[in-house]
UniProtKB/TrEMBL annotation:
It holds the Pfam family Fer2. The lineage of its organism: Bacteria, Pseudomonadati, Pseudomonadota, Betaproteobacteria, Burkholderiales. Its EC number is 1.-.-.-. It comes from the Bacteria. This is Phthalate dioxygenase reductase.
Length: 316
């Protein structure tokens, strides 16, 4: 879709909210809490952004964009070049981070820009009278985005903001927060990899079952592995073999060979390039698949993952 930027709001020194609408005023495709859209940024790079408004708002999409120091150019170009009235190419919403309808209560934990999907989730839960609590972790008080919405009457009583530079009493203890899991509460975590890993570790220590743990990463997990081995990919439908060198991604090797694999983030976050594996053992290095999906070894993300076996046969 081509959507027009109808408003830009500076939420913090480094986060802006962009409101996107149809240029002709028609309603947009519906979405559910936790959904995201792909946006073709002014830099020509496609990036994923969570929708942070509620799904009852069918006339607009609102995304929060962080101008991160380590930006590869996409988000930074929105900050630097996008202005009200400009049009952007935007995908229909997809949701890899939905609320579980069976939950009797929801515990939402956000870090930094990870507040964006949580905000829409919280407003949806509040509107439906559901039980929930939202904990928002930031480095400084000034880094808390969407504070005005978080302090609205229907959310304020269920929202806690934890600032690293604030008084010790308001800092978050994950073990204390997750110490007493009941049978119906689900945990949702979104933000930096360190926060997600720490929250999941604390939840597991305290007996939370995997079925009630949900997460969405913002950005790739740093991969410190070295000494990548070269391997071969075989396209199962044609028998064509493609060599993936040690300093090359599987996606790059296939692209160079003329194989069109849909992709977007190239960081193993969005799942766009997910490909079915017929045989071989993938070396999963993504932030998209869950532990159970990785154990099945029947799919992988060629943008970042590699192979533990000399040959990986793909359903392409």
């Amino acid at each position: 879709m081509r959507l027009r930027i109808s408003d830009i709001r500076q939420e913090t020194a480094s986060i802006r909210a962009f409101e996107l609408v149809d240029p002709y005023g028609t309603n947009l495709p519906p979405f559910t809490p936790g959904a995201h859209v792909d946006v073709l940024t002014p830099a020509g790079l496609t990036r994923q952004y969570s929708l942070c408004n509620g799904p009852n708002e069918c006339h607009r999409y609102v995304i929060g964009v962080l101008d991160a120091p380590d930006s590869r150019g996409g988000s930074r170009s929105l900050h630097a070049h996008a202005k009200v009235g400009d049009e952007l190419e935007v995908s229909v919403p997809r949701n890899h981070f939905p609320l579980d309808a069976s939950a009797t209560s929801s515990l939402l934990l956000a870090g930094g820009i990870g507040i964006t999907p949580m905000l829409g989730m919280a407003e949806h839960l509040a509107r439906g009278g559901a039980s929930f609590a939202l904990h928002y972790c930031v480095r400084t008080e000034n880094a808390a985005a969407f504070r005005e919405r978080l302090m609205q009457a229907d959310l304020a009583g269920s929202v806690s903001i934890h600032a690293d530079d604030g008084p010790a009493a308001q800092r978050l203890s994950l073990d204390a927060l997750l110490s007493s899991p009941d049978g119906g509460t689900h945990l949702y975590v979104c933000g930096p990899a360190g926060l997600i890993d720490a929250a999941f570790a604390a939840a597991r220590r305290n007996g939370w079952p995997e079925s009630r743990l949900h997460r969405e990463y913002f950005g790739a997990i740093p991969d410190v592995r070295t000494g990548n081995a070269a391997f071969d990919i075989e396209l199962g439908r044609s028998g064509v073999r493609i060599r993936v060198e040690s300093d090359q991604s599987a996606l790059d090797a296939m692209t160079a060979a003329g194989i069109d694999v849909p992709h977007s983030c190239e960081q193993g976050v969005c799942g766009t390039c997910l490909t079915r594996v017929i045989s071989g053992i993938p070396d999963h290095r993504d932030a998209f698949l869950g532990d159970g999906e990785r154990a099945d070894n029947d799919c992988f993300l060629p943008c970042c993952s590699r192979s533990l076996s000399p040959l990986l046969v793909l359903d392409l």
